[in-house]
Amino acid sequence: MFRKIYNKIPRFIKNKYFIVLLIFVVWMFFLDRNNILSQLGLRGDLHKLRKEKEFYLKETANDSIELQRLMNDSMEAEKLGRERYMMKKDSEDIFLIVRKPAIKK
């Protein structure tokens, strides 16, 4: 009975090199700690992190330029304080104008 089943299996599947290759492929794709599936996920994470790094480098460059501008020009510092932080002189009053957002229909 075993001989009948064994004879029905194609010859290339019974080859020892094919069996070793199949075990290696299964091991590399599913069982190994650094398998192919996790490598693909890590590659996606790496791509996302590189984009974030590029974004933060640009932001750092922009902030450095703004910092230099604020350090060199006192009018810019006053403008920043008034616009962002609602600072005022003692003799001034500030009036905020709040506009309602347009309703989309």
Task: List descriptors.
mainly alpha, 105 residues
Topology:
Blueprint: H1 2-8, H2 16-31, H3 36-72, H4 74-85
Helix pairs in contact: 3-4
Short description:
The chain is 69% helix and 0% strand. With 105 residues, it is mainly alpha-helical.
Structure description:
With 105 residues, the chain is mostly helical. The protein has one domain (1-85). 69% of the residues lie in helices and 0% in strands. It has four helices and no strands. It has helices at residues 2-8, 16-31, 36-72, 74-85. The protein starts with a helix and ends in a 20-residue tail after the last helix.
End-to-end separation in angstroms reads 77 Å
Largest sheet: none
Overall number of domains:
1
pLDDT average, as an integer? 88
Number of discrete helical segments: 4
What is the global morphology?
elongated
Structural class: mainly alpha
